[in-house]
Specification:
With about 450 residues, this protein is an alpha+beta fold. Helices cover about 20% and strands about 35% of the residues. It folds into 4 domains: about 100 residues, Roll (SH3 type barrels); about 60 residues, SH3 type barrels; about 70 residues, SH3 type barrels, CATH 2.30.30; about 190 residues, Zn-dependent exopeptidases (Aminopeptidase), CATH 3.40.630. Bound molecules: zinc ion.
Length: about 450
């Protein structure tokens, strides 16, 4: 699984400066106290030895972090047998409900805040001098986690944040089932576009002293949150925000944006195939992970997903080049490449196919085995079915079929794109095969034959 995934766009309104300053002055006059009350007491306890916490409710979402047995998690919601939880470090993620013990009744006891102020600051801590991490507008609904004196801890854009009680009303049920953070209806959308440096540091604070928490690729785009001095506060992904110096990035505002610009771009017309033979095709092979991102790790820790994804990619490159295909690798060595730059490689080369290679891992070792083919837009379903048919016939591993996968490299790709999970790193059956050249060569031959068929030979 790839290490980062960026959720659907949450677009927001630029802060109105005068309101912003007014509220700020109001807020610094307010006092605060210790945590005195829990608004909710829904906790779950981890039952697996090691539990993956994922970015979304399902195995197709990437792993955010791992936690250990008996750790207690704060329950925020449920969807499709997955629990949305808050971790002790205030990160928010999803865990499989069957791997945790919950004695509590979900959705009971939950409290929601409806914003009554016109525009209200959302802060990092329950103090009026802590960092402002965003702003919410009248009638926005937020899920309440704690009450701390006059302050309410709420879930804001996937993270834990604070809002002052003077500007909200609380109620016991949400006005709709939609997530609160999705209810801020934007009038326009502002993005921060990174400059042309090979890599640009994104820091934890609006200062050169801030820790580097992310490295951005040239021309990478991020959702803009606010300006802090000479820094842009940006959303790195669904769970993290950071700061980039305004000297190395620019602001871009798009007006009258449609509701789903990225997806609207992915219409069938862009998939028109001009090649009728695999030798005419340009194919981008994307070896998952790399550099400090090792991907999944075998149980004995001797095999890293990034290494076998790369060796498989290199074998596939050789096979395709022998057939005359123009092959471009998103990475050709053990280096970290951002997800966006992988997609840009496909766009820049106007690839006829982007194929991402990964090896899988599952919450409970040995509970899954085999290969899986992922696609995102229906336009790529034929391609996915074709490749998967060959993989399923290959052996020796099971095949888990074709699945819809909300992966960044698929979702944002304008070129035909699929992602293959070629076996489980933590299956004792699969691991015997997947690191061998014999297995990887079999994969390569299957994929090659499938692509020959797909490109019409
Ligand atoms: Zn992976």
């Amino acid at each position: 699984m790839s290490s980062q995934i960026i959720s659907e766009k949450l677009k927001r309104i630029l802060p109105n400066k005068s309101i912003f300053i007014g509220l700020f002055l109001l807020m610094i006059t307010l006092t605060f106290g210790a945590i005195v009350a829990l608004a909710n007491e829904n906790m779950v306890v981890v039952e697996a030895d090691i539990l993956n916490v994922r970015y979304g409710p399902g195995l197709s979402h990437d792993v955010l972090t791992q936690i250990e047995e008996d750790e207690r998690l704060f329950l925020l919601g449920e969807e499709n047998k997955w629990y949305k939880v808050r971790l002790s470090d205030d990160q928010v993620g999803w865990v499989a409900s069957w791997l945790v013990d919950s004695n509590e009744t979900l959705q009971e006891n939950q409290q929601f805040a409806v914003v009554t102020g016109e525009a209200v600051n959302i802060r990092q801590f329950a103090t009026s001098d802590s960092d402002i991490i965003g702003m919410v507008y009248k009638n926005t609904e937020l899920q309440v986690l704690y009450q701390d004196g006059a302050w309410y801890q709420v879930l804001y854009m996937g993270q834990v944040a604070w809002i002052h009680g003077d500007y909200i009303e609380t109620r016991a049920t949400p006005s709709s089932t939609e997530e609160a953070s999705n209810q801020e209806i934007p009038t326009d959308s502002t993005v921060v576009v990174i400059g042309n440096a090979p890599s640009t540091n994104i820091r934890s604070q609006a200062s050169m002293d801030g820790e580097v928490i992310h490295t951005a690729a040239p021309a990478e785009r991020f959702e803009y949150i606010e300006s802090v001095g000479n820094w842009f506060h940006i959303k790195i992904d669904n769970n993290r925000t950071g700061y980039v110096a305004d000297s190395v990035a620019t602001l871009e505002t798009r007006e009258e944006e449609t509701s789903a610009p990225a997806d609207d771009d992915l219409t069938g017309s862009q998939y028109a195939r001009s090649v009728s033979n695999i030798s005419e095709a340009t194919i981008v092979i994307d070896a998952g992970h790399g550099g400090y991102d090792s991907g999944a790790i075998s149980r004995d820790e001797s095999i890293l997903e990034k290494d076998i994804a790369l060796s498989t990619a290199l074998l596939l490159r050789d096979r395709l080049q022998d057939a005359g295909t123009n092959v471009v690798l998103s990475r050709s060595n053990d280096s970290f490449v951002s997800l966006d730059s992988r997609v840009q490689t496909a766009h820049n080369n106007q690839a006829d196919l982007f194929i991402s290679l990964h090896y899988d891992a599952i919450e409970v070792a040995n509970s899954m085995s085999g290969t899986t083919t992922y696609y995102y837009t229906d336009a790529n379903l034929d391609l996915a079915n074709t490749v998967n048919r060959y993989l399923a016939n290959m052996g020796p591993l099971n095949n888990n079929g074709v699945r819809h996968g909300n992966y960044y490299v698929l979702r944002t790709n304008r070129q035909p794109a699929i992602l293959l999970e070629l076996g489980y790193m933590n299956s004792s059956t699969d691991i015997q095969h997947i690191h061998t050249k014999a297995y990887q060569s079999a994969v390569v031959e299957s994929v090659y034959q499938a692509l020959r068929e797909y490109f019409g030979q």
